[in-house]
Amino acid sequence: MAGSNMNPPLAVMAVVVLSVLLAGTSHAAPEMDPYKILGVTRSASQAEIKKVYKRLAKEWHPDKNKDPGAEDMFIKITKSYEILSSEDRRANYDRYGQTDDTQAYSSSRYRHRQDNFYFDESFFNFPFNTKNHRDFTDSKYTLHFSQYVSEVVPDSYRRPYLIKITSDWCFSCIHIEPVWKEVVQEMEGLGVGIGVVDVGYERRLSNHLGAHRTPSILGVISGKVTFFHYAVAKEHLRQFVEDLLPQRVVERITDKNEQQFLNSWHELNKPHVLLFDQVPAVPLLFKLAAFAYKDYLQFGYVDQGLAETAELQKRFNINTYAPTMLVFKENTDKPADIIQAKGMKKQIIDEFMSNNKFLLAPRLVNQKLFDELCPVKQFHRRRKYCVLLMTTDEETYSSGNQEFLSFASTNTRDVVRFAYVYQRLQQPLCDILMHSEDSSQSTPQVVILERRNTAGKALFKPVTAWNGSEEDKLRLLEELERLQKDPSILIHDAMLPELNNEFASMFVVRWIYASYDYLSEVIDDILHNNWREMMPLLSLIFSALFILFGTVVIQAFSDSSEDKQMKPKVKDGTKAENGSSGSRPPKKNFVEVTELTDITYFSNLVKLRPGHINIVLVLTDASKNILLSKFAKEVYSFTGTQTLHFSFLNLDKHGEWMSTLLEYAQDAAQIDADEDDSGSRKTDYTGFVLALNGHKKYLCLFKPVYTGEDLDGKSSEDEAGMSVGKPRPGSRDGHPQRKSSRSRSTSTLQIHHKLDRLGLWMERLMEGTLPRYYVPAWPGLDKITPSK
């Protein structure tokens, strides 16, 4: 009985324990097997796991796999790879069979920074198993390199583009999807271009844009790329798009500057648009429209909440309950068109702008405007005619120009456009249409023309000389009516030249604005870029500055050291004088040779710096060119020496100075020993070279030696045995000496060879082994001055 009473409690206890164990076992059981999902063994390496993961991720990516369970499978594959790619988490799973899914994905929230973006959630806090947090609708905005170059860049001159850089394995990109989707819907409605670049498939385009990390967001406007550096929020992205636009695209208008703004239509050759609204800031939609039509219209914004705009609102009777847009053309007192609506849409604004792109009679200022006003005839379109007034900007013709504008304002024909040109600024065009060689002096004239092809062919007919009279208007009206019935009245044809760009002078202003925008962009990049990304650029800049600075410093020190070396020291004055320090490599590819005259006498000789030597070549007018060329070749290798100067002395001008110098020399007998004993022949100093030390008052002398073979076949070795500079007594066979009537070629050859051994003599001069001839004083100035 007792035993039977104890059995039920034991049974209940056993059931409870078994339930707890089963619950613990079921709780401990893994929700998934990462090895099984990826299809790898437990001994698989990290490389194998990564390879399998990439293959499965591509296969099950929701963009490429339309299976309903593809997204769930993709998330499982991703979570399995996260477990097995981490050594700690993989070891934890192998030991305890736990994936730490709850711990990993339910931990406390962190503020996580990924590249240039700040996220409110950590990567590991993202709910992968929730489908609503991911958006794979970017395929309609996907950009390719060729599409970007051919479509996006040209279109960016009319509207900005917002581009997202992403990839298949960028899990941080998923965090910005909700914000990105909301911003895309708003911006696309305002006219902003949208693009998505997948780094995995468009590596070339991402490199071209300079986007090397995902996720990244950038803007493109006028072909210029600007990166977004702030937290991914709708307000920040909206402000980013607004900052992309030029600051001067819309001008704020008040009662003070209203007249100046509207009256600038003649100077700018554009209609002017005014938007009246209650908000203080210019609406982004209006800014985008202004940027799109900046080449055709000038835009201004009036804040209706300011007291400074009350007169303007009263003048045009503006309704304060809805935004109002006015367009003004030549008449600034009355708007040419008006639109008012509470919810202005982009389509309405675009239609309004397109219908008012041109003045009633605009001035043709460039070829682009000419092409749009007077388009080339197309077979599937109606003919387009252009009534062109060729006039001047002189005050005497202003009334006629005004009457032409008045006549154009009454035009109701869609096929006829009115325009005018200034003869002074578009003279080539006017010369052809007016059949005049100088149209700038002609009176104003009206022609009707029709363009036939893009090469410039046009049919035209001169109508009348124009002064704005009623007869002129009547005649023009009759011709237009005839033209409507019979287009063949355009009897003249011509090839029209391309129009001059009258606004080309504004290039400097545009360049200044572009430079300002570029500097602003550089400063913004420096302030916001990741310094790790900036390190290569900073390293390059500092390396260039270091090299430049180092080069300047080294050059400065080397110049100062050269100046010090040029000053002779007392101990080795002899070496400095003889240049025993050796010659330096030439610094120039030519030899500077100056003539020794009464002007250069003192600087090149008398007051020559201590230790400096002037090498003087003695020549005549007849031998000047030959000897100077040979002299330059022989001494070129010594031009690097700072203590050597090179000059030449013309015997025809200063022959007396040469004779006087040799008479002053202490060893004059030795110098003149080579002269003939009879003394009947005057010594020929042509080809002599003097090394003159102006400070020490001595000279070294080089006397020419002919080393080539003469016409008698005498070798250089035979002549080398002769006395230096001694005239040849005769031939080796006893034949009499040749007469002085040799041919010019023979004489030229001998003069050329007079300096053959000058190089060896220069080396001895540098070594200090040449004999020196001292003089008590240098010959006076009267000896160097040419005789009358």
TrEMBL record:
Superkingdom of origin organism: Eukaryota
Region annotation Disordered: where it falls in the sequence: 564-588, 712-749
A family per Pfam: DnaJ
SMART domains: DnaJ
Gene3D superfamilies documented for this protein: DnaJ domain (1.10.287.110), Glutaredoxin (3.40.30.10)
Signal sequence, start to end: 1-28
This protein's record includes keyword Transmembrane: yes
InterPro entries documented for this protein: DnaJ_C16_autophagy_reg, DnaJ_domain, J_dom_sf, Thioredoxin-like_sf, Thioredoxin_domain
Keyword hit for Signal: yes
Keywords, alphabetical: Membrane, Signal, Transmembrane, Transmembrane helix
Stretches assigned to the J domain: 33-97
Membrane-spanning intervals of the chain: 537-557
Bias type Basic and acidic residues, positions: 564-575
PANTHER family, A to Z: DNAJ HOMOLOG SUBFAMILY C MEMBER 16 (PTHR44303:SF3)
Protein's name according to its UniProt entry: DnaJ heat shock protein family (Hsp40) member C16
Native organism: Poecilia latipinna
